[in-house]
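Example record for the data management plan.
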Amino acid sequence: MSEWPEPAVDYVQAISDTKLVLGHRYAEWSLSGPSLEDDIGGASAAQEEIGHVRQLARELESQGRDLDWLNGQREPEAFSNAACLDSIEGTWTEYVASIAPADRAAWYLLDAIDRDDLDGLITKMGEDEYFHLEYHDARLETLAEDNPETVQRTLETTLPQALALIGPEAYDEDADPVFETGFTDRPIAKIRAAYIEHYRRLFDGTDVSLENVDWDQPALEDWDETRRRTGSGSISQTDVEQLRGEKNKLFTMN
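Corresponding structural encoding:
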């Protein structure tokens, strides 16, 4: 397999880490939905996301990343997941308004990859993501009617954090290092524009206003290009231990 440019390895790492933590959050909340349908959907999405992570981990391992490290043998600050997944507290409404922006951002980054050797993998993941994203949008539309204040307040935090996963607006055709290598077919600036337009259209005509969302995030000077976020936040040590499955080892049969 041909070697990827180093910026592309970090780019895929952030997608994989976001999916890893996303699968964990789906599983955590899979018994907290307002209906059995929501619980089953969350459990199914968790399985699919972890399946995606395993496939991406194999690709990243072929590019020199250690498999144990990829699977969680690292400190919380070494994860490159979307910041809106670091911790989700509160109600199911806040949960949906946190995972939806992250899931869509990760898919937009994945869909932009332009490599023949990854086409089949991305197409299969896209089939799963279609249902994830349709489900999120449908639930957000319902929640915008039932609890617009909570949706709006949560999105004012989570949308800028998801935009930080995508990257800064300054990364256009002439400045995006991953696009310049030919690894993606569109620069970050175009991915951001499509992402922002989607959410503006989704909530147009609802009681949820996105006027106070800071669509300019992340500021280039504050952005960590490797972790694709601003600030020094991370998932918790408890999250890392759960991702490693450390407690499950107690039940391993010899």
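Summary line stored alongside the record: Confidence is low (pLDDT under 50) at residues 248-254.
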